[in-house]
Design a protein that fits this description.
Distance between the termini: 62 Å
Shape: elongated
Number of strands: 0
Strand content: under 5%
Order of helices and strands: HHHHH
Number of helices: 5
Structural class: mainly alpha
Radius of gyration: 26 Å
Largest sheet: none
Amino acid sequence: MDRNLFNTDEIVRKSGSYLTLAERGMIQALHKEGMSLRGIAKNVGCTHTTVYYELKRGTPPHKSNRSRITGYTAKRGQEAYTANRKRSKRPCKLDRDDCKPFIQWMCERIRKERWSINEHKKTRR
Protein backbone atom coordinates (compact mmCIF):
# COMPACT_ATOMS: atom_id res chain seq x y z
CA MET A 1 0.00 0.00 0.00
CA ASP A 2 1.47 3.37 -1.04
CA ARG A 3 1.16 6.36 1.25
CA ASN A 4 2.24 9.56 -0.41
CA LEU A 5 1.13 11.83 2.41
CA PHE A 6 2.60 9.84 5.27
CA ASN A 7 3.82 11.79 8.33
CA THR A 8 7.54 11.58 8.97
CA ASP A 9 9.84 12.98 11.61
CA GLU A 10 11.25 15.56 9.19
CA ILE A 11 11.38 18.99 10.82
CA VAL A 12 10.37 21.88 8.59
CA ARG A 13 11.04 25.45 9.71
CA LYS A 14 8.27 27.94 9.25
CA SER A 15 9.28 30.62 6.76
CA GLY A 16 9.93 33.99 8.38
CA SER A 17 10.50 32.62 11.88
CA TYR A 18 13.48 33.62 14.01
CA LEU A 19 16.32 31.25 14.69
CA THR A 20 16.21 29.35 17.96
CA LEU A 21 19.20 28.70 20.20
CA ALA A 22 19.25 25.07 19.01
CA GLU A 23 19.41 26.19 15.37
CA ARG A 24 22.18 28.62 16.25
CA GLY A 25 24.01 25.69 17.87
CA MET A 26 23.65 23.72 14.64
CA ILE A 27 25.08 26.67 12.70
CA GLN A 28 28.01 26.85 15.13
CA ALA A 29 28.80 23.13 14.84
CA LEU A 30 28.48 23.00 11.06
CA HIS A 31 30.54 26.17 10.64
CA LYS A 32 33.34 24.68 12.76
CA GLU A 33 33.32 21.64 10.47
CA GLY A 34 34.00 23.97 7.55
CA MET A 35 30.69 23.54 5.75
CA SER A 36 29.62 26.20 3.25
CA LEU A 37 26.87 28.73 3.93
CA ARG A 38 24.49 26.97 1.54
CA GLY A 39 25.24 23.60 3.12
CA ILE A 40 24.57 24.94 6.61
CA ALA A 41 21.38 26.61 5.39
CA LYS A 42 20.14 23.35 3.87
CA ASN A 43 20.72 21.47 7.13
CA VAL A 44 19.14 24.15 9.32
CA GLY A 45 16.24 24.83 6.94
CA CYS A 46 16.77 28.52 6.23
CA THR A 47 18.33 30.66 3.52
CA HIS A 48 22.07 31.13 3.07
CA THR A 49 21.71 34.87 3.73
CA THR A 50 20.20 34.12 7.15
CA VAL A 51 23.24 31.99 7.96
CA TYR A 52 25.59 34.73 6.70
CA TYR A 53 23.96 37.42 8.86
CA GLU A 54 23.84 35.09 11.86
CA LEU A 55 27.57 34.35 11.54
CA LYS A 56 28.24 38.05 11.18
CA ARG A 57 26.09 38.86 14.24
CA GLY A 58 27.63 36.22 16.50
CA THR A 59 31.28 36.83 15.62
CA PRO A 60 32.99 39.54 17.69
CA PRO A 61 35.23 42.11 15.96
CA HIS A 62 38.97 41.49 16.09
CA LYS A 63 40.61 43.82 18.60
CA SER A 64 44.22 43.35 17.52
CA ASN A 65 46.35 41.10 15.36
CA ARG A 66 48.00 39.46 18.38
CA SER A 67 44.81 38.31 20.02
CA ARG A 68 43.39 34.87 19.55
CA ILE A 69 41.11 34.50 16.52
CA THR A 70 37.59 34.32 17.84
CA GLY A 71 34.83 32.61 15.93
CA TYR A 72 31.08 32.40 15.95
CA THR A 73 29.31 31.12 19.04
CA ALA A 74 25.62 30.43 19.34
CA LYS A 75 25.46 32.04 22.78
CA ARG A 76 26.91 35.31 21.48
CA GLY A 77 24.49 35.24 18.52
CA GLN A 78 21.52 34.74 20.84
CA GLU A 79 22.64 37.59 23.11
CA ALA A 80 23.02 39.93 20.13
CA TYR A 81 19.57 38.88 18.89
CA THR A 82 17.86 39.61 22.22
CA ALA A 83 19.64 42.97 22.54
CA ASN A 84 18.51 43.95 19.04
CA ARG A 85 14.92 42.87 19.76
CA LYS A 86 14.79 45.04 22.87
CA ARG A 87 15.85 48.07 20.85
CA SER A 88 13.43 47.34 18.02
CA LYS A 89 10.24 47.74 20.04
CA ARG A 90 8.43 51.05 20.23
CA PRO A 91 8.74 52.65 23.68
CA CYS A 92 5.62 52.92 25.82
CA LYS A 93 3.93 56.31 25.53
CA LEU A 94 3.18 56.44 29.26
CA ASP A 95 6.89 56.60 30.08
CA ARG A 96 7.26 60.08 28.58
CA ASP A 97 7.53 63.13 30.85
CA ASP A 98 4.54 64.93 29.34
CA CYS A 99 2.20 62.09 30.41
CA LYS A 100 3.06 62.28 34.13
CA PRO A 101 0.52 65.04 34.95
CA PHE A 102 -2.27 63.00 33.35
CA ILE A 103 -1.29 59.85 35.20
CA GLN A 104 -1.17 61.75 38.49
CA TRP A 105 -4.60 63.29 37.77
CA MET A 106 -6.03 59.87 36.92
CA CYS A 107 -4.62 58.27 40.09
CA GLU A 108 -6.07 61.11 42.15
CA ARG A 109 -9.55 60.62 40.63
CA ILE A 110 -9.40 56.89 41.22
CA ARG A 111 -8.54 57.37 44.87
CA LYS A 112 -10.79 60.31 45.73
CA GLU A 113 -13.86 59.62 43.60
CA ARG A 114 -13.45 55.84 43.68
CA TRP A 115 -13.36 55.44 39.93
CA SER A 116 -13.14 51.86 38.77
CA ILE A 117 -10.60 50.96 36.13
CA ASN A 118 -12.01 47.55 35.29
CA GLU A 119 -15.74 48.22 35.23
CA HIS A 120 -17.62 50.03 32.53
CA LYS A 121 -21.30 50.74 32.22
CA LYS A 122 -23.30 48.58 29.88
CA THR A 123 -25.48 50.46 27.46
CA ARG A 124 -28.89 49.20 26.52
CA ARG A 125 -29.97 49.06 22.93
